[in-house]
Amino acid sequence: MYIKIYPENPNQRAINKVVDVLREGGLVIYPTDTVYAMGCDAMNVRAVEKICQLKGIDPRKNNLSIICYDLSNISEYAKVSNAIFKLMRKNLPGPFTFILPTGSVLPKIYKNKKEVGIRVPDNNIIRQLVNELGNPIMTTSVRDDDEVIEYTTDPELIYEKYADKVNILIDGGYGSTDPSTVVDCTTDDFEIIRQGKGELIV
């Protein structure tokens, strides 16, 4: 299914339709404040496994990332010190992925690496989906380094590629080509391990 949703004013009926798909374990492609991404209900292990298989991600070797609506219940999903919480509060919502030690609530698949990436994108569509779902959304970029740029920025072309692999694609306009900036916050001496979109405010 292909749905157009406007980021400035997301249509509630369209959001509800996508949330129903997520609740049933479906896979969704959506815009963020960086590149288009693929995701599912982060608490649905079978859906997470499906995405890992589709994207060739080994959860024993790769960090998995989740999108939260805001930082209010972040401590359920990750262990976060006061210093790191302050850093995140200055920069989120925004184009950053913060790597943190995994919290207790996340399913076992996130605990292989003992770390989880936390995103709060500056994009109304995906944040509203997370808010309505009531769970974080496990997220991974649709961008592959060797891919034609249009196939990762133009929603119609992304749909052409993934139509038989996902349940819904949300067209929220053209995506960016810059990925998020990744910040390792597993200790208080945080470190930028990938500079992408956005300048970290410290």
What can you see in these coordinates?
There is one protein chain. With 202 residues, the protein is of the alpha/beta class. The protein has a single domain (2-194), classed as DHBP synthase. Helices cover 29% and strands 21% of the residues. The chain has 7 helices and 10 strands. A 10-stranded mixed β-sheet has the order 1-8-2-3-7-4-6-5-9-10, sandwiched between helices. A hairpin with a 6-residue loop joins strand 9 (181-184) and strand 10 (191-194). Helix 1 (12-23) packs across helix 5 (124-133). The radius of gyration is 16 Å and the shape is globular. The termini are far apart. The model has no long low-confidence stretch (mean pLDDT 92).
Give a concise summary.
The protein is α/β, with parallel strands linked by helices.
